Amino acid sequence: MEITNRQLTVDFVSQSQSSTGVTADHSDFAEELGNMNHRYQAVASDVSERLKQLNSLQLQWLEYESQVDQLNIWFAKQDTRLAGFVQLQSHATVQQAIREFNVCIFT
Asked: Which residues, other chains included, contact 52 with Cβ-Cβ below 8 Å and sequence gap of 6+?
């Protein structure tokens, strides 16, 4: 796109040089074209800066998602460990009940 705009500028300058007399309209048009080129460069610079910011945000988001995934894995491991403790506790409670039952029967 930038090359096309520059080519149009070159074509305009070439055409205006080949004409017999440069009118005030052509000068005004050339000046306006220069102003538009400066605005285009400012907008292109702004767009480039915003793209850099978006890329940075995308990297931060990917890091955030990775951390969330790691946290979910940690929670799953803790849930598994907790389920194991509950089973051990249930097993210990049953053994204690059997001991108490045996004590009650044999005494």
From this structure: none
